[in-house]
Write a structure and sequence with these properties.
The chain has 61 residues and is of the alpha+beta class. The chain has one domain. Helices cover 18% and strands 13% of the residues. The longest helix has 11 residues. The protein is elongated, with a radius of gyration of 18 Å. Keywords: Chaperone. InterPro entries: DnaJ_C (IPR002939), DnaJ_subfamily_B (IPR051339), HSP40/DnaJ_pept-bd (IPR008971). GO terms for molecular function: protein-folding chaperone binding; unfolded protein binding.
């Protein structure tokens, strides 16, 4: 499965729900639940000058 996150802002604790692609439901044959993806984002505590410049350039787009 390929997922797209275009036009979505991913942040710590963000949850993406993909309807109908989760685990099969126990009492309903052939029916699947929703797939939930929760993001754990860790930001660096320190950046050197080169890393800061690269991030600055990337955010200018």
């Amino acid at each position: 499965m390929t997922l797209s996150f275009q036009d979505e802002i991913i942040f710590p604790g963000y949850e993406k729900v993909v309807k109908g692609h989760g685990m099969p439901l126990a009492n309903e044959k052939g029916v699947r639940g929703d797939l939930r993806i929760k993001f754990q984002v860790k930001f660096p505590s320190k950046l050197n000058d080169e890393q800061r410049a690269k991030i600055r350039d990337a955010l200018r787009c």
